[in-house]
Amino acid sequence: MSNRRTYEARGSVRGACGHSHVTLRAAVACCEKDANGCASLGGGAYSDRVVTLRTPGNGWDELTPDEIANLESEYMSARVRKERGK
User: Fold this and answer.
1) Does any domain span residue 42?
2) Is 60 exposed, middle or buried (0-12, 13-18, 19+ CB in 10 A)?
3) Residue 1 located in a structural domain
4) pLDDT top residue among 73 and 47
């Protein structure tokens, strides 16, 4: 098993997306794609998928919108620091 954390779109009804996303953004985009696909079916269809985080040894944890925002903020801060270091 990898020591890297990964993300996945999961729902109790729709199930897991089956992807092991390396970035949070990819997992959010996967959730959005599923939501749009379900909505396009009409008749009130919707996706129950949410972003989950897999930490080695701890399994899957559902992320709240606040946790997603914090992770995105950390990502952007790290990216700025990296660009400034060049």
Assistant:
1) yes
2) middle
3) no
4) 47
CA distance 69 to 28: 11
How many residues can be counted in the chain? 86
Q: Which of 58, 59, 31, 57 is nearest to 46 (CA)?
A: 31
Q: Measuring CA to CA, how many Å separate 45 from each of 19, 39, 48?
A: 22, 6, 10
pLDDT digits (tens, 9 = 90+) for 13-51: 999 999 999 988 899 899 999 999 999 999 999 999 999
- Structural domain including 61 reads 6-84
Q: Count up the domains in the chain and report the number.
A: 1
Helix (H), strand (E) at residue 11: strand 6-11
Pairwise CA distance, residues 7 & 29, whole Å:
11
Q: What is the pTM of this model?
A: 0.71
Evaluate whether 62 touches 52 at the Cβ level (below 8 Å): yes
